[in-house]
Structures are given as C-alpha cells and as structure tokens.
Design a protein that fits this description.
- The structure holds two protein chains of two kinds.
- Helix content of chain A is 45%, strand content 20%.
- Chain A has seven helices and eight strands; from the N terminus they run H-H-H-E-H-E-E-H-E-E-E-H-E-H-E.
- In chain A, strands 1, 2, 3, 6 and 7 form a five-stranded antiparallel sheet that branches. In chain A, strands 4-5-8 form a three-stranded mixed sheet.
- About 21% of the residues of chain A have low confidence.
- Chain B is of the alpha+beta class.
- Chain B starts with 25 loop residues before the first helix and ends in a 15-residue tail after the last helix.
- In chain B, 35% of the residues are buried.
- The chains are: A alpha+beta, B alpha+beta.
- At the A-B interface, helix 1, helix 2, helix 5, strand 4 and strand 6 of A face helix 1, helix 2, helix 3, strand 1 and helix 6 of B.
Chain lengths: 256, 259
C-alpha cells in the first residue's frame, strides 16, 4: 500500500465519521427542535382558543342575571305550557280597555276568519308542532265599532313588539293574526254587549290567530335558576370574573 | 565526477508536495475534520438547547391549556344558557318580524275610503306563499296548510305569504266604485287592487244594506299586499336604518307592518 492509498483511505474514513456524526447526532436533534417548534405553535394556538372560550364564558357568567331575566320575560310571549287561561285574561283585559266585547274564543283555525265559532271548534287540533315552537291556533270573536276593533288589533300586536333599537318588548302573549273578518254584528250580539249602545256601527270581528308554546323538551329556562344555570358551578367557585355586574343590556323588557 | 543531490529526500518531489511536509497533508485533513466536528458540535448544542427549551415550553403550554379548558368547562353552563337565550330571542324576533300589521292595514283602509262608499264586510287573510308576482287571490290560512309545515320558520305567517283583503260594499255610483279602487291603491303596502264585481241593484226603491239604497252598485274588491318579507331581509333593513339614524329614534312601526 502506497502512501497515497493510505491518505485516500484516511480521508474516506474521516468523511465517514463526519457523516455519521451528522446523521446520528446533529440532524435528529435539529429535526426534533423543528418538530417541537411546530408543537409549540400548536399549543399556543390551542391556548388562545381556550382562553378565548374562558373569556366568552366569563362574559356569559357576568351577564347571567340579565340573560335569565330576558329568558323569563320571553316566557311571557311564548310560555312553556299552553296557558290558555292567561291568554283569555289578556284578551279580556285588552277588549275591556278598547271598549270591545270579547265574545268567544275557539281552539283551532281551520274554519278561518269566515267560519263561525261553532264550525271552528271542529277544526285542527291545537298544538300543531313545527320546528321550534308549537303553534296553537285560535279563533276569537269580538264585537265593537270599527275604530275600537282597530285599536284592539293594534293592542294584540303590541303585546310583543320590536323596539327601535332592535330589541324585543314583551308585555303579553305573542299572537300572529292570520286572518280577520269584519262584518255587521247581529242584533243579538249588539244587544248583549257594550257595542249594543251603538248598533249603527257595531261590527263583529272574527280573528284567526296563532299563539306559540315552547317545546316540552326545553322548559322555560332549561333547568336554570336565578342563582346559576343548571349544572353549573356556583358563580363564586367558577372564577374571579364571576362577581361582575351584568353589563349587557337586557334585550327583552317585560312590562307588567 | 558523480553528481550529488544536496536537497533532502523528502523535499525532492517539487511543487506538488508544497507544504505537505512529512505527513503528506494529513495534518491539514485532521485540522479540517476537527473544524467540521466543531461546527457540528455547535449545531448540535444549539439544537439541543432549542429542544430543551421548547420541550419545557410545550409542557408549560399544555398545562395552561388544560387549566383554561377546565375553567371553560366549569363555566360551560353559562355559555349554554347564553346560547339558549340568544336562540330563543331570535326565534321570537323572527315570529314578531313575520307578522302582518293588520291594525295598520285597517287604519289605512279607513283613511282612504271615499265618503260615498260603504263597506258591508271585510275579510283579511294571509294567502299562500307568493310565486313570482303577487296573486290577489287569497289562499287558505297558512297555519292549516302545508305551507306552514314546510317553512323553515315556525311562524303561522311565513315569509313570502301574501296578505289580502276582500271587501264587499256599495257605493253611490259606479264612478264612486272607480274612485274607491283608485283610493285603495293608496293603502300602504298594497301591490294590487282587483275588482271582482260591481253590480247595480234593481229599480225598486228602498234602502239596501250598509246605508246604500237598493239601486246603488254593490261591489266586491280584492286588495293584495306585498308579500311578507323574510326575517333576514328585515334584519338587514333594520341594521341599515339604525346605522343611518343612530342618533335619532326610528319608528318602531315601519311602513306596511309592525315588523
């Protein structure tokens, strides 16, 4: 073996050692560092998401009192049960205020505005469940003057209405009037009620309207209490942001 | 005389072995290798440091994430309740928005009706969903038909339904009937007024129904309103209106309805 051969062999051996060092030690460590950098980025993103969720939850916790009041107020417009008695009371009160005689209420609406209360009684059963709320169709008959009936229709809409700011103002049951019929009242109807004194302008107003009921699965507040939502930890235990006063304005305002 | 080379034997190979010395350049190779190894060691050290610090960072972040997630889970019922309130408010708002303001329509009717016209009966209905142009013919009430069950909203008066009045009455003359038709078109939100019939009574005298004489024309008119808009359209309209008049208080009863 000549000296040149020895040199070539030594050079190859050194290169092999260098390659081995790179491949076995340096390169894996650098790859691991890169991989960990990716993990750090992912963990940071995860942390931001989690902190955002916490902030959102704390906001919800701070607004809980106002939101609970809103939900309870909405229950006035759409109650968890049929609440027909409160509906009758509400209609009676409105008709008294508007000088209109509240003649009849019939469950169901298939007879429409033109149907008599008797025929409407054989109409579709109340509680036609659709997606979301359950519909409860009714047919109401009122006696009164044109102007008084107009005021009554207005009042029925005003139980639940939009405010200028886009919120809801709830003071009674939400009703959707589907049809109405105004016709001269019969003499018997005019003679019986308040419209009897002004028979020349006495009209019979027949209204087909729909009230709404919450799905039975939901309940009014979904198990929440004024103190805490159902299944939630008490505000004191839930974190430092728990004691904040409600900052979000109540969207729904209930008028007694 | 024999020539004698005075140059030492190891230095006789000329320029090719310049600087190689006795080791024939192996020393340089060793130095090069050592240099490369030093660079490798530096790279390894830096990478190792990064690995250590990043591992610690990942561990710390993982703990923080777990803590944050635990806090969020603890407060989850509040978030759920907020979602419930938002959902219910939206549902009620959509129902409120989908109503037709009959009171306003009746008020408008009383405002535009000429003096020489009497109305004997008025029937208002929310017709079927409009397809294309609004049809004046009212259909069955929406709640009793398939329209309400097929609609995405729970309203008994779904968007696209056409409210309509059917008026029966009498006027003092046929020209008064024509005037009535023209005046009915002035009602807020009316899209079409259609005369169904206007028939003059017999020659016999006496008083007819609704304060008209028996000779006065008796008419039936259908008044169709614009289809009920979708809630989304109303929301965007409301947002536009509130953006325009943020300082002033806009009317709660827009034209054509309380929506």
């Amino acid at each position: 073996m000549t000296g040149r051969d020895r040199i070539v062999l030594i050079v190859f051996a050194l290169l092999a050692v260098l390659a081995a060092v790179w491949l076995l030690a340096v390169s894996p460590e650098r790859k691991l560092a890169t991989k960990l950098a990716t993990q750090v980025s992912a963990a940071q993103a995860q942390l931001m998401t989690a902190e955002s969720a916490v902030a959102s939850a704390r906001g919800a916790q701070a607004r809980y009192t106002a939101e609970y009041a809103s939900v309870v107020s909405l229950g006035k417009a759409v109650p968890p049960s049929q609440e027909v008695s409160s509906l009758i009371y509400q209609l009676d009160q409105a008709s008294n205020q508007k000088q209109v005689e509240f003649n009849s209420i019939t469950s169901g609406s298939a007879g429409g505005a033109g149907a008599s209360p008797a025929s409407a009684a054989t109409a579709a059963a109340p509680g036609a469940a659709l997606a979301g709320f359950t519909q409860m169709p009714f047919t109401f008959v009122f006696n009164g003057s044109f102007l008084d009936l107009y005021h009554l229709f207005q009042q029925l809409n005003h139980y639940t209405l939009r405010t200028a700011s886009g919120g809801l103002e709830v003071s009674g049951r939400l009703l959707t009037i589907q049809s109405l019929k105004l016709a001269p009242g019969t003499s018997a109807e005019q003679g019986a009620g308040k419209a009897g004194g002004k028979s020349a302008e006495g009209l019979t107003g027949t209204i087909t309207a729909t009230a709404y009921v919450l799905p039975t699965s939901q309940g009014l507040t979904g198990g929440a209490t004024p103190a805490s939502p159902g299944g939630a930890a008490s505000p004191a235990a839930a974190g430092s942001g728990a004691s904040g006063s409600p900052t979000t304005p109540a969207i729904v305002r209930a008028n007694p | 005389m024999r020539a004698f080379n005075l140059i030492p034997a190891e230095q006789r190979s000329g320029g090719a072995s310049l600087g190689a010395g006795r080791s024939q350049g192996a020393a340089y190779a060793v130095l090069g290798v050592l240099g490369v190894l030093a660079v490798f060691a530096l790279l390894y050290g830096v990478a190792h440091h990064q690995v250590s610090s990043r591992q610690a960072q990942v561990s710390s972040l993982t703990v923080q994430v777990q803590q944050a997630q635990a806090r969020a889970a603890q407060l989850a019922p509040y978030t759920s309740f907020a979602a419930l309130r938002e959902q219910r408010t939206k549902a009620v708002s959509d129902l409120v928005d989908s109503r037709f303001d009959w009171a306003h329509a009746v008020h408008e009717l009383g405002r535009v009706l000429p003096k020489g016209t009497s109305i004997s009966s008025l029937t208002g209905t929310i017709g079927a969903t409009a397809t294309g142009s609004a049809s004046p013919a009212p259909a069955a009430p929406a709640a009793s038909g398939a329209a309400s069950t097929a609609a995405a909203v729970t309203s008994a008066t779904p968007p696209g339904s056409v409210p309509a009045f059917t008026l029966s009455g009498c006027a003092t003359s046929q020209s008064e009937v024509a005037l009535t038709l023209n005046r009915l078109r002035l009602i807020d939100g009316v899209s079409e007024v259609t005369l169904q019939s206007s028939t003059k009574g017999g020659s016999s005298g006496g008083s007819g129904a609704g304060g008209c004489s028996s000779q006065d024309p008796v008419f039936t008119v259908q008044v169709a309103f614009a289809p009920l808009p979708a809630a989304a359209a109303l929301t965007s309209l409301r947002q536009t209106a509130s953006a325009k008049s943020s300082a002033t208080v806009p009317s709660a009863t827009p034209a054509g309805g309380s929506r």
